[in-house]
Amino acid sequence: MSGRCILFVEDDVAFADELIEYLNRHGIADVVHSLHVPSVADIEAAAPTLIVLDQFVDGFDTLTMFPELTRAIACPIVLLSGNQEAVDRIIGLEAGAVDYIVKTTSPREILARLRAALRRGEAAAPERAAPLRAASSSSGGWTFDAKQRQLLDASGEKVRLTGLEFELFKTLYDSFGKPVSRETLTALLLNRRYQPQDRAIDNLVSRIRSRLDEHGIDRDIMQNIRGLGYVLIQPDSAAE
To answer: What is the pLDDT of residue 63?
Structure first.
């Protein structure tokens, strides 16, 4: 496994040193350890083969950077966490991590799962290297430009969205055709745990739909899938 660059972001020095030593002894030698969370630009420049990311670094929840990170970085991301709750594992996996490993897991199992993540990354590399398709719909009359941070209607007029509204739309766009749960949206956008009575995400979706109506865009591109969350789809795929 030599020659692979693994970026390991972990602020627990003792845990990191012990794990890196174990990985080194078992053939994973090229591990770059960072005590702090690098910027997405720095991670992109480093071009790691795999990112092993502690969920909480210096009090920062790294899940909040996943939307930007998964758009910019092609390699797989493995989350490490001291939290064993199922909801955190689900949120991490839905956010884009290929695996969620609790820190109490044995080094031998961590090694096996990191090797699996590396193999998965190698297998998916050609697919990830392909250019992303533009999410636009001539029939629905809208075009989304992530780089310019704008949603345009059929006439080219910009749909005015607040910061949170835009981030929610962009998160659904990044998972086009795949439902994103309220738990994941709440964690990523609002940086808090979702509660059953929490209507914040529903209210954001409602406001976005109203703005779509104002611009003649089919509001049904944003669908609520019971038990799964919200999904962005093409208008001709919308439920009747």
So the answer is: 86
The pair of three-digit structure tokens given for residue 211, joined into one six-digit string: 């703005």
Amino acid letter at 90?
I
Which residues, in sequence order, are CB contacts of 97 under 8 Å at separation 6+? Answer: 53, 66, 77, 78, 79
Helix (H, G, I), strand (E, B) or coil at 149: coil
**Where are the chain's structural domains?**
6-129, 136-237
pLDDT in tens, 209-224: 999 999 999 899 999 9
Selection from 228, 215, 238, 6 nearest residue 114 by Cα: 6
- CATH of the domain spanning 136-237: 1.10.10.10
Q: What's the CATH number of domain 6-129, 3.40.50.2300, 3.40.50.1860, 3.40.50.1970, 3.40.50.300?
A: 3.40.50.2300
Rounded CA gap, 89 and 98, in Å? 11
Q: How far apart are CA 80 and CA 46, in angstroms?
A: 20
The pTM (predicted TM-score) of the whole model is: 0.59
